Structure formats: C-alpha cells, structure tokens
Amino acid sequence: MTRRTFVRHATYLTALASRSASAAPALNPNLLAKFVDPLPIPEVAKPTGMRAAPSHPSTKLPYYRVPMRQIECKLHRDLPAARLWCYGSSSPGPTFETRAGQPLLIEWPNELPGKHFLPIDHTLHGAETDTPEVRGIVHVHGAKAPPESDGYPEDWYVPGKSRTYFYPNAQEAAALWYHDHAMGINRLNIYAGMFGLFLIRDDFEDALNLPKGAFEVPLVIYDRLLKQDGQLDYPVSGDPARPWVPEVFGDVMVANGKAFPFLNVEPRKYRFRVLNASNGRFLHLALSNEQKFHQIGTDQGLLPAPVLLERSLLAPGERADWIVDFTGRAGEQIVLNNDSFQVMQFRVGQTKSPDTSLLPATLRPVPKIPESAAVKTRPLALIEQMTMKGESMSMLLNNTPWHMPVTENPVLDSVEIWSFINTTDDSHPIHLHLVRFQILDRRRFEPFFYQNTGEVRYTGPVTPPAPEEAGWKDTVRADPRMVTRIIVRFEGYLGRYVWHCHVLEHEDNEMMRPYEVIAAAIR
Ligand SMILES: [Cu+2]
Fold this sequence. Notes:
By secondary structure, this protein is mostly beta strands. The chain has helices at 3-21, 186-191, 203-207, 447-453, 504-507, and strands at 49-52, 60-65, 68-73, 82-87, 96-99, 104-107, 138-141, 164-167, 174-180, 195-201, 216-226, 232-233, 252-255, 258-259, 262-265, 269-276, 283-287, 293-298, 301-309, 312-314, 319-325, 333-338, 341-348, 374-386, 392-397, 415-422, 428-432, 437-444, 475-478, 482-489, 495-501, 512-517. Copper (II) ion (CU) binds at residues 395, 426, 428, 501, 503, 506, 511. Residues 395, 426, 428, 501, 503, 506, 511 line the site of copper (II) ion.
C-alpha cells in the first residue's frame, strides 16, 4: 500500500466518521434506485439585451445576467431536495452557446446567502477568519480572456456585489466551462454546484456536419458524498481547527445534476460533450457493452482525426468530445461506467430519425509547435509537504507558495516549454489560464535523487502523449514520479493570470501560482 493509497483510505474512514457524527447519517448509494431520473439538459443561456463594449462604447454586445444563487434541487427521485449553490437556477448552470469571433458580456451578480454551508478551513491562505465567508468569482476555464475578466482568485466579491466580464471568444470551437475560483474556498463553492458549460462554435466545426441539436448532448460528470436527507456531504479531517482534507472522493456519480440518470437515445450517432467536474476523482469512462467510441476533441477543440477508444481517461477539469454510434443497438440498455461505479444509462429506442451527420476521417489540423521555437524551458517542481506524522500539509508548484512574487513571467507571443517535475505520489492535472498548449512528452525520473541534488535523472523512456491528448489542451495530467513537458505560446493579453492543479483540494492549499505575461521590453 503506497502512502497515498493509505491516505485515501484514511480520508474515507475520516469521512465516514465525520459523516456519522453529522446531523443526518451517510447515504448508502447502493440503496438508491438506478436510472430512474431522466438526464437533465441544462437550459441555454439567453442574452437579456445589448450593452456597450468595454473598449468601444459605440459597439453593442450581447449582455447576459447570470446570478450566483442558492437553490433547492433533488439529486435523485427518491431523495429530498438538496441545498445547492449555482449559477442561474440549476446546477450545472445554463450552457452558453457562443460563436468564435463574437464577443459578449456576462454580469455575474453574487446573490448567495451570507453564510457558507460547507466546512471552511480558516488556516488556508485567503480564507482567514477576517475574510468574508461567502465569496465568489467566476473563471471561464479555457477562455482567452483579458486579465480583468479572467476571474483572478483574489478578485472575489461578496453577496450584494456584482461584476460584468467581457469574453472576446477570439478562439477556435471548443467546450469551455465556467466555475467559481474564490481564493481558499473554491473547492467548496464548486462542490456546492457552481459550474456550467461554455461552448464556442465556429464555421470550421459546422462544416464537419457532426451530430447536432438533440443528438449533441452535454455530459457534466462528477462524484458526491450525500447524506440520507439528500444533502451534500463534504468530508472533514479529524481536526476541527483545520478541516481541510487532501482529496474528496464521492460514492454517488452525478451527471448533469442527477445521480445515476438515464437518457433515451435513438439507434444512431450522438455527440457527447464530456466534462469531468469532480473535485478530485479521475474518470475512467467505458460503456458496459464494451462498445468502442470515438474521441474527436479535447480541452481546446477538435483533434486532427478521430481516435477510437474503449475507455476515456479524464482528470478533473479535462474535457472530451465523443461520437458514440448506437446504430444496430435498438432495444439495448447500455451503462456508462466509471471504474466500478455506474454513472448513467443509455436506453436505445427502436425508432431512428434520418441520420445525415458524419464522423469525418480527418477533423482539424493541429500544427505542432516545434521545440526549437521555445525561448525558455522552465523546470517546475510539484511538491507535497508533509507533517511529522506523515499527513499531507500542503502542495506546492515550483516549490513556492501562492503569496510569493511571480516567478513565471513569459513574454507576450513567445513560446516556452514548461516541465512539470512531479515528485509526489499523485497525478496533478495542471491548468494554465489564458493559453492553449500541446503536450510534448512524459518521462519517469528519480524523485529522491532530484530532491537531494536538484538534478533530474531519468529512469524511463520518453513517452509521447496518447493520441486523444495530442490536440490543443489547457489541462494536462502531470503523473506521479514523471516529468511532463508542455509547449505553450503565450498569446492574447499582457497581465496577471494563474496556473494551478485542478484537484480542487490541492488548488485551495497552495497548489496555485500567479503568472504574468509581460512585454518584451520590460523583461
Ligand atoms: Cu494536485
């Protein structure tokens, strides 16, 4: 048993202990009826009018208003309604349907109540006792947005306040998503339900004639712990002064806001826009009939060509664009599984509307950025700090806590290689704001030698990214005891952004750093 496996196990036991001590007992998910709720499809956000563009007041842009709110919503037919926090009136919030090159404005008013309902750890940076309990700030994950609209974690605001953000959408078709990013409580706000999809479309994608309309379905998948009264349960450590836990793993799989839902499908091709919105669970998704499916896109858009898969691995924050063909499966009931957990069920009906959609042999070229284009390589160590008792204390990027001065300062439009040297026993999904990047490779190394000498000694071969990762990415798995290299062109805007681990418990405990895109002259 590795230390991490032990901690996972210990966390689970702690969770059970804390859960049985809480007001309502823990829910045994095996007692919940499976596949009794239809898969909800989040509504599409509608603009409420036109407003002046920030830099060109004569240009009017579509204006959306989507408040952060508390709602009551049943996560399953047989459970009482759960208290959730969300955007608009559902969790996931409304899906934004946007076009490349068509900018828009979104106002995100904070209409949350004055008290948090999940366990805040006041020892975490940014969540001290003199900081308001309830804070929100929205980040559109994967958006090439100016820094003042990116949702910097310290730009949070309290109930009664609001922000209007400008999204230029000057980027290729992709499935982005929006979620909370408030410093020190991000994991709690997202667990409470604060996320939704933000789809960008463009003419290139339209011309491919992929399945669309009712045959293109968002699948936002995440795990939760629930109590018997239907409420969310967020585990705590044994120390009331420091309730933070290093990871959260739920035993109830939720898709689009329902536990174990079903979807009626026709025997034809479907496109699924899959997002792993879990706090810490890595998804390994497969169909119960061992049917293969194609992945056509990743975080930042289409792959060069479809990749045939029988299993799809998605770290928290990652997206996959799938084509699943139910042709010839009329009458079958197919379960989407995540390891040993059931997620949802597809019920294939008998009738089929004409399917004129295509699965093209080639999709969108992804021109490789040559390594020779890089002006700088940054070795960035991923570190887990332990207490004397061997418990996780905090996680660090580049061995540097959040509050220290910026160390990553790429020049606008320059290319850099970032080399994540993961000394820990965990896989960390690393996300850079603002940019898209390509994965170069992964390679095993000796963590102990590195920690003693600062030198990377490789012990394995260079492994290229899997075919389904070989497109434009914004989140990459930095696997344990591996050096993972990405190549990035820092396009878009000057200014302050962040990069962080997308395991939310890590992110909230120092595994996030500012970075700054600078002009060449001031370097
Ligand atoms: Cu991490």
